[in-house]
Amino acid sequence: MNKQMNHMSRQEQSIKDLVYNCLVMSKEEQIIDHILAELGEYYDAERVCIYEVNEEYTHISNRNEWCSEGIASRIGSQQNLSLDGLKQWFEWLGKQGEFFLSSSSVSEESDSEARKMLEFQGVDCLMAAPIMGSDKITGFLCVNNPVKNTGDILLLSVAAAVCYREASSRRREDAKLEKTEKEMTDRVNQGLADQKKLHEANENLTTLLAEEKQYTAIIGALSNVYFGLFYIDLEKNTFQELFSLDKIHHTLGEKGNAREALKHMTNELVRDVYLPSMLQFTDFDTIDERLGDQSIMVQEYAARSGGWVQCSFIPVERDKNGKNRTVMCTLRWITAEKEVESQGNLIQALAIATRNRAIRTEFSRICS
To answer: Does the pTM exceed 0.70?
Structure first.
């Protein structure tokens, strides 16, 4: 159980880092470089790359690359490669979604597209996730020769969504710069100041709608792991709901007083037998002291509605003295994990009882 919790802690921390840096970092290249490095470390991979397709959908290029120590870069030799041999693979990727491939699991007859991708990358195994546009794949995120956590596809999915958001932002900025130059010429030649203002307003609206769509995609990916996610400001005593179950949402609202919200949520969700310990765990005034410099603080409880829940506090931002300023509060169902743990304990108890019975039988035989 501790090993599983540590594993979840690392995955939660990685997902939190991706989302937080997406929110606070201003430079697209800085965000993407951080994402690739995080993926490379998490999967213990040789290389992590982002490939993008040109607007004509004829060529593909290695847009960003991270390499582990001792691995040579390929980004210079993977520019404007013809897409002719990979179009069918792109269709396969769109249907397959995120996946893990290894040469040992690819058959010669039925997995031609999978084998083609391994040959294109020149690796024994890889993980990939499509970077989806509004109606087609615009590229893909690729992890070469991963060694660890190859079953954790969620982090790769979230990273692909964030990469699309940043790539879209870059393309919009490039397009915006090009349009600005043209509009300045038009303004000088034709005096279209009023039309330019209208165009900029429409462009800003389009940008906001696109960013909202990507934010929704990221939150949707996180909701596969958690049923509640809240951003808490410990200095201002405020919370912001990122998403939660309808019952929690209707009770707490989208934002408000964090101290009262944590207390009210705990009383509503936790069974009486676990209520005292959970009220201590969610006590707003002691979160910073108890969390300290830990990467996560976790407590389990039985829910009033049935099942088991894991509640955790994850630090997001600390001041220069190490004091926690903001944290994320997460809620995750762990009923299936608890059942597996309970079955394991039962099997162990039966084994001990059987062994003791055998010892008593043998002892009785000797004494008689």
So the answer is: no
